[in-house]
Each structure stands twice: as structure tokens, then as C-alpha cells.
Design goal:
Shape: elongated
CATH class of the largest domain: Alpha Beta
Distance between the termini: 109 Å
Structural class: mainly beta
CATH architecture of the largest domain: 3-Layer(aba) Sandwich
Number of domains: 4
Number of strands: 37
Strand order of the largest sheet: 21-20-23-18-17-26
Largest sheet: 6 strands, antiparallel
Length: 641
Amino acid sequence: MKKYFLIFILLIISFSGYSQYSKNKKIVLKYNAFIRNGNGLRNVQLVPKGATIQILEKVSSRLYVVEYNNNVGYIDYSKSFDFSGKKNNKKSITIQSTNKNGFATQLPPILNISDISFSTDILEAEQSATLNLTIKNSGPGDAKNVYVNLSSNIEELEYPVKTNISTIKANGGSVTLSIDINGNLNLPTDEALFKIQIIEPNFKVKIPKKQLKFRTKEFLKPELIIAQYALLENNSAKPNKQIDINEMIDLKFAVQNIGLGNAENVHIKVKNNQKGVMLLGTVKGIQLIRENPNFKNIQTGKYETIIYRYFVNSEFTDSQLQFNIQAVERIGEFGFIETKSFPINKILKETGYIRTIANLNDYDQNEVIVQDIPDFVVDVDADIPVTKTKLINTYALIIGNEDYQSKQNGLRIEQNVDFAVNDAIIFSQYCEKTLGVPKNQIKFLKNATSAEINRGLAWITHLSQLDAGKAKLIFYYSGHGLPHEKTKEAYLIPVDVSGSDIEYGIKIADVYKKLTNNPARQITVLLDACFSGGARNQGLIAMKGIKVRPNKNIITGNMVVFSSSTGDESSAVYRAKQHGYFTYYLLKKLKDSKGEIKYLDLSNYLINTVSKEAGLYGKLQTPQVNVSLDVENDWQLWNLK
């Protein structure tokens, strides 16, 4: 059966000069033409230039029946073109595509949205979410040229207004569509109403609109400032707490985020263009590096301490030093550019203070919140006593494990151990400067993996073997500790070992065994970690809601172990001093005594002072001392120095 199509001539069709046409007159198209699928819609079929069409019948003065490739249809040339080739501006015709009996040549689709979901409950500014739609066709005909129209009441949402779908097959065919919706920087806190319309143009199918409702949240803006700063002597022939010519100096400042949102990808840069001022590098831990500091994230209320080291030589003639300090974060709007000046030959002083920033959750609480305000220059970190003594047979392995999040997916930043690296850095400086341990006999490990800790233990035990019973060993650790829930054995946790895989950690009993493998004159272990499942911030695992009292390890050889807490207690952080409580008071006693303190006095001081000071802030922490039976009558008179 021949089919009737609408042929809509978009370009001029020439009929070789005839003005009247009779039945069965054939013409050749001099221009491209198109066949529509009825109803004035967009589904068209091209009839190319040079194709032959036949006039079958004249229906009226302007309406003709034509045939092309054995298909027939109607054409009303008066709606768009006339046969003389002269174009008019009338609207193009819409004649339904039918066969000779007037029936539609295609069957309709029946569409519905079978599934709709949104990937988040709350869409935040600068974040993206995904709208998932599944559209099903249960009708007998294919759905062609389907598209999705979206609209919203919030202008700050970014999304495609129209999304095209090619074809949805008949009789159960379906298409799943994923559409990204973004909240821009100016997104308000509001309720978004998102309207979804599905349209199939050929049969004028419009699925009743669906409305998606979700919450939006405005961007929490960070705000970076220089909270505190100071210029300090680092190395001078005549220390006098002021800046002189021919000495090394440290520009030390704290960049704090006092905004409500986190600052991401923070880049710091300091410039000084004065003659006679040489940039030596930035201080990272105990190393001097030649690069500007970068921070992946500075959370609201948190701060980062930065040190730039310079040498001021005899070419410097100005009356003051000037530094241009710049901080840039990801968005580029919430950093700063500031100039700080420091006079020459005047006593240096610290300027500014660390702000206390209320967390958004704090506003929902009715209680009074007491927070520590940290010192910028901590007393035990500065003016470390220096001895002329050299302990040629003393070796120290010092470990600070703070950053667990970077090595383990799924951990939160709160599960890191605040200031553990600073604990280890400053203790290593006391070992070198105050106790007199040569620098090359100190191994410092920052955020150490299991392999690195084991290599460190091999290093110190090998040196102990070489000294044939004369060595004094110091093992210091600040970081996470955990008990095995079944065996209750205590473990040190490397940064690459998760709380659920504790067997891959470093068993404390194995540490003690390795340290005593070879005879040593004196072995001192200092542990600023708890082994109950508690932690300075948040533990690595939940420990089923309780703390575990770890088993005590049997200590042998000439060993004394100072631990920061007892039993199922946690080891707290002294935020104002940027150390663990145990380490802070250990350092304080070493500073006050210049390292000349007997173990019994150190033991009594740590137990009494830490338990009292931590207790003032509602923290239960009691240091303990465990002693080998081999030295139970001698250890009280031992001295670290």
C-alpha cells in the first residue's frame, strides 16, 4: 500500500514554466526538499535535489497529491512556496502523514518516568550532584527525538535546560539518563524546586511534569589571615634577641582560617627584595627546603605555622626588614597580601594572637565552651638549653606519626594525631642540644610506615651490637597506639596500617625484644600514645564503644619505659602548647633541669604534673613507669644525659 507523506518544499521548486498541472505530471526538483511526518513538527525526511516527484492529483487550487519513491502525500505549496519560485512568509503547512485510507502510518509510544533519584540530600555551593532518570516506553511505537526539559526556582543552580535522547524502543524499551546539577559559588541556603518535563515531539507526547525538591546550602567562605607573627634569631655569634648583621633569622608566622568554611589548596609566598637579605629556604620539620609551603586544606579555626629562614649579611643597610606575605586559596578571593616590617637592633617581640572560632555546631549548644588558646612561640620550643657534652655511645630513634589520613582512604582528618610530629621534632632537638647526642646518631622518622619503623629498629639495634654493651639507647614514639581486641596486646600503629588490620602494626613486645637483643648499658623508652583504643582526637576504630585495658608487657634487660597513660586511659593533647601533655611536661623538665635529672625525679614529676594538669581540663591521664627486674634497684639514679 502506498503511503502518503507531507512534502514541504523549503527551497524553490521549478516546474519548467507551467502554471497549471494535470494528473500524472512528473517534475524534477532543482533544489532540495523535505518530507515532514505531519503536525508541523521537526521529524523530516530529505528529498534530494534532482529527485523526481509526480503530481498525482489536484485537490484544490493550492493542494496537490504527489508521489515520491512509491510513497504519496499532500502538498500545499501556498503555505511556503509557490510554483513560480517566489517565496512568501506564510507559516508552513501541517498535514498528518496517512495512507490512502486516512490511517496514521506510525504507532504511538507510551512514555513514563519509571525511576527518578538524586545523589544527595543537600546540594552545597561549589558542589555537584546527579539527577538520574529512567524513561520507559510501553507503547507499540518507537519514541523518537525525545528530550528532557529542566527548570528551577533557583538561578544559582547550573544544569542543561534541554537534554536530548535519540530513540526509546517500543514495547518496554528504556533509557537511563544522568544529568549533572551544580551549585555555583553564590548558591543560597534555600529549598530548590526542580521541574522535569519529558517530551516526544512526533506524537506531541508530554509526560506530566515531575517536581524534585531538595535543600541547598550556601558556600561557607574561608578567610585567611596572619594571626601571629614574629622575627626570631636562629643562629648568631652573639644572641641578643634582636636582629643584627651577619646572622641567620627566622620569619615565623601563623596563617589562620577564621572563616566558616575550609580553605583548600592554600599556597604561601613571601618576598623580600632588600639588598643583603638572602633567602635560605623554608623550614619543614627539621629540614630546610627550597620551596614555598602548600596546604591541601586549612579547616575553619585551624592554623598552620610557617617559617622562612634568611641570612642578613653586611650589605644590608636599611633600618628595617620588610616582608611581603601572600596567601592564595582555591577560589582566589579569600586569601591576603600583607607587608610586615621589623626594625633592626631592637628587641624582637611576638605580635598578634590565634583566634578562637566557634564551630557552626557550637551554636546549637547551650553549654559554655572552654577552649585552649595556643601560644605562638611555645616556651619549651624556644631557647632550648645547649650542652658542650657529647654522648658518643648514645643513639636515639625518634618517631612522630601524625598524618594517617593521607595514607588511608576513608579516614577523617580528626583521626590524625595532632602535634605528634612537633612532639618528635622538639624532642630530637633536646636530644641533640641539651643531652648532647650527636646529630648523626639520631634517626628521626616523620609519619613512618611499618617498613620505615622496622628499618629504624634495625638501625639502632645494629649500633647497639657494635658498641658491645656500652650503648645507651633512647626510643621515643608519639602517635596512635591500639590494643588487639582479642589478645589485648599493645601495638604501635604505622601511618599505613589501619585499625582493622592491627596485626600489620608494630607489636610493643617486639620493640622491647629488638632493643634488648644485644646487651646495652641503658635503654629508655618514651611513649606518648595510649593503647586502650582512645586517642588525642578520634581513634582509628570504634572499639565497640568501650576501651580495652591492654596487657602489660614483660620488660627485660636494662630497660625503663615511660608511658603517657595507664590502662584504659587516653593520652590527651595540650593544644595551647602544641604537644601531647606527656611530651610537653617531659620537655619542660628537660629544659628547666638542662637535662640533669634523675629518673626517679622525672618519674614523680611526670606522674604528678600530667595527671593534675590534664585533670583540670576534665581529662583522665596518669603516666606510668615500668622497669625491668634487672634494674629495679638502680634505675632511680639513671640520667638521660
